[in-house]
Write a structure and sequence with these properties.
With 218 residues, the protein is an alpha+beta fold. The protein has a domain of 88 residues: SH3 type barrels. It contains 2 helices and 6 strands, in the order αββββββα. Strand 1 and strand 2 form a beta hairpin.
């Protein structure tokens, strides 16, 4: 696997992003393993001069030299160029992955902002409903007081109706008693009148007897 990766690095220019320069042209490569880490040993021909047009000029390469890099130093490998970051610049795939993560993060931030707005709206609606509940609770208490007052008045009315019925019965009783009293009065008056007449007749008879007239009064 290391050899396949190494073969992809041959016959390409090497550019260092951290140094900001073209290091040279890769002519050969070897792989070196140190414990659990392996390295690429690039044999390159450094560039001495390049024309302003960027075209290769005769004698632009100097003698070969070797550079040792780790796979993680490679940012990207193109058809003609190897880009190195010397461990300070992440690989293109990592950059793409980070860009994807950033895009997902931005999407999550927007979604979070939307949900925060929804939550704020729900809190506002909840506050409004709480106020309505408080108002309804006060109204229920007021109606409960009115209900208790109504029940009390109802009891008073029933009591007064009972008293009224008793008063009516009492009035009827008094009317009956008045009739009886009138009858008794009439009877008494009749008795008194008869008694007086008897007494007067007796007195007259006694007076007549005393005078020897012996005449009974009619």
């Amino acid at each position: 696997m290391e050899n396949q990766q190494g073969n992809q690095l041959v016959n390409k220019f090497v550019i260092s992003l951290t140094d900001g320069q073209i290091l040279g042209y890769v002519t050969d490569i070897n792989v070196e393993v140190d414990h659990d880490q392996f390295y690429f040993i690039l044999k390159i021909k450094p560039l001495e001069n390049i024309s302003k047009s960027g075209e290769l000029q005769p004698g632009m390469f100097s003698s070969e030299r070797k550079i040792k890099i780790k796979p993680t130093d490679i940012v990207s490998v193109g058809p003609d160029v190897i880009i190195l970051g010397n461990g300070q610049v992440p690989p293109i795939r990592e950059i793409e992955r980070l860009h994807h993560i950033a895009s997902e993060y931005n999407a999550l931030v927007k979604e979070l902002e939307h949900k925060e707005k929804v939550i704020a709206d729900l809190k506002e609606e909840n506050s409004r409903l709480i106020k309505q509940i408080d108002e309804l609770t006060r109204e229920v208490k007021r109606l409960q007081v009115l209900k208790e007052d109504f029940e009390h008045l109802k009891e008073q009315l029933i009591k007064q109706e009972g008293q009224l019925e008793m008063a009516k019965e009492y009035i009827k009783l008094l009317e009956g008693l008045r009739h009886d009293i009138d009858q008794i009065k009439a009877d008494v008056e009749t008795l008194i009148k008869g008694y007086i007449e008897d007494v007067v007749r007796k007195i007259v008879n006694e007076e007549l007897n005393a005078r020897g007239l012996k005449k009974a009064l009619l």
